[in-house]
Description:
The chain is an alpha/beta fold. Helix content is 38%, strand content 17%. A seven-stranded mixed beta sheet has the order 2-10-9-8-7-3-4, with helices on both faces. The longest helix has 21 residues, at 50-70. The termini are far apart. The site of pyridoxal-5'-phosphate has 14 residues, from helix 3.
Amino acid sequence: MKSKNSFEMKEKNIVYFDNAATTFKPKRVVDKISDYYNNYSANSHRGDYDISFKVDDEIDYTRDNIRKFINSKIKEEIIFTKNTTDSINIVVFGFFYNYLNDGDEVILSSSEHASNILPWMILSTKKKIKIVFVDSVNEKLNLNDLFNKITDKTKIISLAQITNVTGDKRDIKKICSIAHENNILVVVDAAQSAPHMKIDVQDLDCDFLAFSAHKMCGPTGVGILYGKYNLLKKMLPFTYGGGMNLNYNEESLELAEIPYRFESGTPNIAGIIGFGETIDYLNEIGMDYIERHVKYLKRYLLKELEKIPYIKIYNKECEGSTVIINIDGVLSGDLGLYLNKRGICVRSGKHCAKMGDNKEDTVRISLYFYNTYEEIDLLIEALKDKKSIYEFVK
Ligand SMILES: Cc1ncc(COP(=O)(O)O)c(C=O)c1O
């Protein structure tokens, strides 16, 4: 019998190294979702019958589970969204649209994912604000440059805790501390960090934080927006409709309590319930174990890659779970397709981060805790087979 903690996808003889894009889902998460659809598939928002009570209880359970997972003070600070992209858009247009004044400045890094650049760019077409980009040195955020770029107009710093291409890990706690001394709010894109490390929002003291379930063994279509309660009180809903109001008539609208006012319409019930189970699963494995195991795998991967003279490695200095490479004279897309022929899934291109210092297309190998040393050996074997690579691409 299959263990409830197994991954059916792992049994398909696929070597999966595209975990920064999305991860496999353990059987128990899939079972939990099926259980909802098979056995109590009612809507949320307080129906008057048992299966609807159960749905609300499960959603509450997930919310509190997430609260504990990131150590926020109260579960009202946890808002369910569709994904990280949705969470950042909600903050940008629900909160910062009203918060910013003409001439204010937002600091970003040029290696952010499109989801943490485009919403700010669109905001800057609606309000007269300025976006200031921080430089990187050797693929890592230049903290001195960041602090030098703070002016009395700076109102926001919005950064990934770990970037999705180079895997640059930023010292968010230090950034928050300096930001707050200067009355600047900090938005953290935790899409690549929440799956890989313990996050404590009270210790970081960040103001908003966003992540996606699907990058951490959870379902697609569910994301989280954390916000400090005092700030959420000032945030306006981004979407309006059922579930987010207490009362309305032709003249007025009374908003529902926080966080429900930010969760209009029927939520992704199955996904949220599945995400609660995912958090239980990750807690059982332990975030410390996950971080450590991925670190060891990556160390091994780098050591083996360095033995292949024609492989260029771009991000040796970075701490995240990604390694980005190229082979001279081989298009990254072609190398990706060659590896696919050998049953190995990687990602090639710009990886949704088009403005970084690393403007070249690359092949990204991204690891997660269920990857093994044997899988890395298969990748290395394929990359060492220079003759087959050049034959494939010619
Ligand atoms: C750093 C980072 N931010 C944001 C996103 C967007 O996540 P989602 O597609 O789940 O909204 C990603 C996805 O790859 C990411 O890596």
